[in-house]
Amino acid sequence: MGNQRHHSQTTLRVNGKPHTLTVDHRRVLLDLLREDLGLTGAKKGCDHGQCGACTVLVDGRRVNSCLLFAVALDGCEVTTVEGLRADGEEPHPLQRAFVERDAFQCGYCTPGQLCSAVGMLAEAAAGHPSHVTDPAAPSGGPVELDREEIRERLSGNLCRCGAYPRIAEAVEAVIP
Question: Which residues contact 33 (CB under 8 A, 6 or more apart)?
């Protein structure tokens, strides 16, 4: 009985599929995704929320999954790089753009970069400003994404290989 006090039943909808698990209260989302669900796209880079390799989307917002306790996300929708394919077959336009523009080298950071870019595009479309958004720009409407905006908005995702220019090019390629 003592062990049950440290575990809770948690339901997450991951890449469109519901999963109900008994989860240790100390288990972070990244470990649950990788070890319990076999979704190994998100990577454990720094385990401190500083590199972005573990970035996934929770209810459409990008998060560092190494910092979030899974039990706190009960009822949430989680999208990993494996779930970016809209129909399960065709790669997401960003995935295609990354391949076409050689926006990765070793590939370790790529899943986090992709999830972060998807989240960033949604944030800009919803009118969320960044640190470099012109304060004189009208608020409430979509934020125009130039190279400076893209670089600022993706600055929380590190690439040890230095593929940043190609990553920015790939994101620019999918901006409507």
Answer: 14, 39, 42, 56, 65, 78, 80
